[in-house]
Amino acid sequence: MNILDQFKLNGKVAFVTGGAKGIGKSIAVGYAQAGADLAIIDIDIEAAKTTAEEIAADYGVKTLAIQTDVTQAEEVESMVKKVQEHFGQIDIAVANAGIALNVPAEEMSLSEWQKVIDINLTGVFLTAQAAGKVMIEQGGGSIINTASMSGYIVNTPQPQCAYNASKAAVTQLTRSLAVEWADKNVRVNAVSPGYIGTELITEAPALEPLIKQWTAVTPQKRMGEPEELQGIYLYLASDASSYTTGSDFIIDGGYTAI
Ligand code: NAP
Question: Whose CA is nearest to atom 10 of ligand 1?
């Protein structure tokens, strides 16, 4: 197959958790541009509906918005069932919903720790598990988990030990699922972004001094744009990555190289 054709997603169905905003929305836009029908999954249903409607209008693909809290196993199972019933298949699942909490380790409550682990790690597991079951039955698929460069380095100056630990675990979970499901034609990979200028970050005046510190130690001397992640998520979703599984792609403007 022609290399450009390998990247096409026409006839494929994707869902993206945390898809209403930020990185998740950008991934969904990229998939729609490549021709996929898709479901926007988010705890914020109003934002998910708006994103789904925008994407359908802009790119002429079929979209669906479903409210789901990725920490709740029954909600995740039911969401995956709805996507499968609505579109007839699930080829691409992106477990992207995640939160960051900046609390010094010595002050962190158990509930704060648990909240980060529940969303960032258990949420990824539940999403991949539910999608994996469908993909195993259907004979294949591609699962992509959003990890972070924070799984490899310790960000400074903000204290975020639960976040860092959760993201390192996502990368190892990704490898584990990839090995378990390789013979079932279900590929599992991760993307580990560095600092990405989503609206939440760029529109928070309190973060300005931090952004200066982060970009100063980034070789490319800037944050990434959400759109600059679209290529790697498209590669991993598409037939172009048919021999890629169990890998984690760090996209960080060179941050972890130094
Ligand atoms: P974002 O703009 O906050 O978007 C995340 C979306 O996920 C929001 O719509 C959020 O809803 C939703 N969400 C939160 N908890 C959820 C839950 N329990 N179930 C379902 N949806 C939930 O974040 P982002 O910056 O795009 O980050 C997306 C992913 O990339 C995260 O996993 C993050 O850790 C990772 N990442 C981000 C960066 C970065 O610099 N931005 C760097 C590395 C990795 P609410 O807004 O209502 O909470």
Answer: 18
